[in-house]
Amino acid sequence: MKRRIKLACLVLSVLITLTACSTGEKTALDPKNPVSITLWHYYVGDNKIALEKAVDAFNTSVGSEKGVVVNAVAKGSVMELEKAITDAANGVINAEAMPDVFSCYPDKALEIDALGKLCDLNDYFTEAEKGLYVEEFLNSGRFDGERLLILPIVKSTELLYVNKTAWNEFAAESGLDASKLGTWEGVYAAAQDYYKWTDAKTPATVGDGKSLMGVDSVANYIIIGNKQLGVEVIDGKNQQVVLNREVMKKIFDTYYGGMSLGYFNAVGKFRSDDIKAGDLVAYVGSSSGAAYFPTWIEKDNTQQPIDFLALSYPVFTGGSPDVIQQGAGMSVINSTPAKQEGAAVFLKWFTAEAQNIDFAMTTGYLPVQAGAYENEAFKTSLETLSAGTAADQNIAKVYEIALDQIMERETYASLPFKGSYEVRTTLEKSLTAMGEAGRQNAMVLKEQGMSEAEILVALDLNARFEEWLTVIRSQLDESGIAYVEK
Predict the structure, then answer these.
(1) pTM (2 d.p.)
(2) Which of 25, 153, 252, 281 sees the fewest Cβ atoms within 10 Å?
(3) What is the DSSP string of 316-381?
(4) pLDDT of amino acid 12
């Protein structure tokens, strides 16, 4: 999406404002007899508080005027929410009744829609209203070409996070520039140099270099890597998996080689934990996780402050600069006309610029309407973050890069199909397991005195790649998911 689209969205916003109060429209809502809307979500902490504040504001304003009362219910984690939704939709004994609105990812929407439970939101949003949203964000909730089953609430992309303090120390001696981190090949080479540089710090102990790089979502790494190189590994249009050997080999070699030789690593639950522990200098992760990037690290049993650097997501050489766009939206169930309309009224209000900017900036996500990025409230929020605490300043820096990616690069979310979530899991777990096995095998070979080149030969990346594909095929066959090889 290009920046000029935002002007068109702003014009549409004005037109909607001018026509929103037209009379004569039919409505199932009655302010004298308010309809109660139950909303299930997975937000916790500050996100949960922000949502509850928004719901309260709606109930005492637009909700009161139109006759809609929303009750937000936290259902725990995403997995707990999805189980509750699935049980309710299938009428499992002792399951709760279905909510009227719920946080939803595309894979779950497909499952619930197959049971005839989801409402097509096209019935409640005009073309002008839909035109206000960032097109790619809205399209991620479309099914069967046009049916709008999920409305985007907030979104995120992925960036490269760097401990600037550690990087600058390395760069000063190595002569490397951060621009080298713009490609995956550059990241790999920099990680290799960093490992050798740190290894040389302790000449008495050979092979104890440190890792530079980590990957928070291995599934996203595989999916967007394929897309950058011209392949949709999760092919929702044809409801199959596409295993392009040349592309998958490049993705495999980078991750497996990096993990095996210690250039890459994954120690804690999240890569931000590894930054804090001093186990990594950089990682790729969600823009919504900016608040979790540490402002200090543990070194020599002391807390040492660190500076922060945010960079664009790396691109495979020769590929297009595609980046992930992700984040759950909200779906509405088929119920009564009043409940469906009431749910739509809330969602329109919640995703309108004023409310959505406040919620997104509180939670570290991106607003979903294009005009929000030209809104003075958004700019003011960014200025406030830039002048705030070290953590706030980190978030502001991330927004600068994330916005550039959303506006200037192609954002991508794979189209789901039945079983596509299992595909993500298969890709993630299989490559993660291969990387960890390679690391353990390489450690044994290091102890035998082998050089890095000799270790790579001994590991036999070609054989390990074939092993990875065999695992993927086997699990896809077991799940009954179609795939093609090219």
Answers:
(1) 0.88
(2) 25
(3) -TTS---EEEE--EEEEBS--HHHHHHHHHHHHHHHSHHHHHHHHHHHT-B-SBGGGGG-HHHHHH
(4) 40
